[in-house]
Structures are given as structure tokens and as C-alpha cells.
Design goal:
The chain has helices at residues 10-17, 20-31, 34-50, 58-80, 103-124, 128-139, 144-151, 155-174. By secondary structure, it is mainly α. It starts with 9 loop residues before the first helix and ends in a 16-residue tail after the last helix.
């Protein structure tokens, strides 16, 4: 067993813990499934803890972790041979606890839920290469150069894919996904 992979390697574990939420967010954006995303993060963490050579520079370390996660995702797709079918599920999410909230709070929660679901629906309609670059740059905060390294494409490709991805997402968001019910007036029979 690799000595770097021992459970007592606390400094490595603490360093990875700082990125767990961001790794999960990226994994979830790729898989669209909480359980699959958690499995993917676990695979990434295990590979990072067992690695013999680890980047010292923090930006390089962050990019390295995201690259491990992305490669694990693509390896999993190849292993299962399921192509894009893995992206068809939509996590409905939790709309929050409404027991002690005012009407304006409920309305705000409802609007955030609608916005979240609308963006998720828009992301689901995008190709994997556009979703990956959009998540890497706009959600994970990578620079164009870091995203290019992560996605293993030239910086110019990142820029053009990102432009097309943002346009596609805006078009998807501009479509109305929520429709009003027609207002029915009930008259009393006096």
C-alpha cells in the first residue's frame, strides 16, 4: 500500500477538505445526481490522497483536483457505456422550511427555487462540452487558462465554447418554463 494513502495523513486530508464543496458542486453539475456526485468526489479524494506527486502551488493543486474529478467522471462514462443518459435526471431540490416564514419569505423561496430549476433545466439542454466549460469558468471560478488545462483544450477553444455556452443558456432561460394558470372568477349565486 502506498504510504501516502494512509488514514493518518492528516495534512493532505485537511488540504482536500477545503475544496470538498466546490468539488461536489462540479461533480453534481456533471452527473446531475447527488449520489453519483458524492461517489465521484469520493473517487477523486481517494485518488488525490493516494497520489505520489502533488502540486505544491495552490492554484495548480485546485486545478489538479478538478482534473482528477473530471477524468474520473469520463472514466465512469466509458466504463458504463451509457453516454449522455446519465444526465437526464433532474434533482428537484428542497424548497426550504416554510413553517415560520412570512408570505414575502415564501415568495422569495419560491422564486429562488424556480430560478434554480430553470437554470438546471437550461444546463441539461446543453452539450457536455458547453456545460463543462460553463461550470468550470462561471461556477467553479477557474480562469480561462486553468479551464483550458482542466478540459485539455486550447485557451481559445475555452473562450469560444464559453461564449456559445452562455448564449445557449441565455436562450434556454429566456423561454418560459413556468406558465400562469388562467384566473377563474367564482361568482356567488345571490
Amino acid at each position: 500500500m502506498n504510504p501516502d494513502c494512509s488514514a493518518n495523513n492528516l495534512p493532505k486530508r485537511q488540504r482536500i477538505e477545503a475544496y470538498l464543496d466546490r468539488l461536489f458542486g462540479y461533480a453534481f453539475s456533471l452527473t446531475k445526481d447527488r449520489d453519483s456526485a458524492q461517489d465521484l468526489v469520493q473517487t477523486c479524494v481517494l485518488k488525490a490522497l493516494c497520489a505520489e506527486r502533488i502540486p505544491v502551488d495552490e492554484p495548480a493543486y485546485r486545478a489538479w483536483l478538478f482534473k482528477i474529478l473530471r477524468n474520473a467522471f469520463h472514466d465512469d462514462i466509458r466504463r458504463r457505456r451509457i453516454g449522455t443518459q446519465a444526465f437526464e435526471e433532474l434533482d428537484e431540490g428542497d424548497d426550504g422550511n416554510r413553517n415560520n416564514t412570512s408570505d414575502s419569505d415564501v415568495s422569495s423561496i419560491d422564486q429562488r427555487l424556480i430560478n434554480t430549476l430553470t437554470v438546471r433545466r437550461g444546463l441539461l439542454q446543453m452539450s457536455l462540452e458547453h456545460r463543462e466549460v460553463l461550470v468550470a469558468v462561471d461556477l467553479a471560478g477557474f480562469s480561462y487558462k486553468e479551464a483550458a488545462c482542466l478540459l485539455q483544450v486550447p485557451v481559445g477553444t475555452v473562450m469560444s465554447r464559453l461564449s456559445r455556452a452562455r448564449t445557449a443558456l441565455l436562450q434556454a432561460l429566456s423561454k418560459r418554463h413556468v406558465r400562469r394558470f388562467p384566473l377563474r372568477i367564482v361568482r356567488s349565486g345571490k
